[in-house]
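Known limitations

Structure tokens in this collection are predictions and should be treated as such. Users comparing against experimental data should check residue numbering before alignment. To illustrate the layout, the record for ABC-type transporter, periplasmic subunit family 3 is reproduced below. The input appears on top and the generated tokens appear beneath it.
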Amino acid sequence: MTRPWRLIVSLLAVLGAMLGAPSAGAQRVLRWGGDAEGGTPFVEADPANPSRVRGFDVEIAEMLARGLGRTPQFVQVAWASIPQSAERGDFDIGLSGVEERPELAAQHALTLPYYEFREVLAVRVADSARYRRLADLAGHRVATLGSTGAYQILLDAQAKTGLVPISYDDDVHPYGDLVAGRVDAVLLDHIIAERSLRRVGRGKFVIVPEPVATGHYVGVLARANVALRDSMNAILRARAWPTARSSARSARGACGTTRRPRTSGACSLRRRRRGHRRSPRRTPTPCREPRRRTPRSRTCRRCCARRA
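Generated tokens:
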């Protein structure tokens, strides 16, 4: 009696394992959250197919899912609720222009920065000459999106300069109120500012060239989901994604100048302008000192010292 029962129990255990185990062709899903209603250009509904999404963060999610061997699945969530939804486990990672902030890092697990943005001021064309910095806006109303680094910058500037921060729930109405004269300036990411300028039309407002600050976009995960966060960081490093810090360093030479493509005609023109005599050799040298090449610079020691 015992042997048949043992055989039955063993068969049931094997059957349960076969039913519970995923098939070889099955692939896990990477659920990522974003706001397609107001998240352009980070994530938005595809006009050709509203059931699909497109945007910069869509490409980031696809890259992470591909590196993890998963299939990306988008989850719609309001932008302001992305960190809380990630912490509840509504999705694995939140991507929709989420800014790297100290208070966010203290409560959640954040990925490496994958993009650098600039906080820029937008003012009306008539005010472009007198409103160049936050200090010039003392006593004036400056709009921005709530729960962002820009809003914290305005709060800090309020105590120093006396400007009046105005918080909005979206990034569309601030620029509309700027054009209508209800606010005197808008402080937001340069990506949002440039998109709003194309939407409103040039001539309605201008973007101040000098940035107020810089920031970084990151992915946000639940605080306990550190293992998945570390795997995503490894993917970002392996793919050599142009993060803010690495791209800024790779685009600059040893003397701090942006590298340009080297052409013999351009080099000869620079030598003539600097007073160098044309060398009879086929490979001219721009300076008397031997050229010392470095991995990040194509200029000689004299030029670097002169520029420094």
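For this record: The chain has eleven helices and 13 strands. The longest strand covers residues 115-124. Please report discrepancies through the issue tracker.
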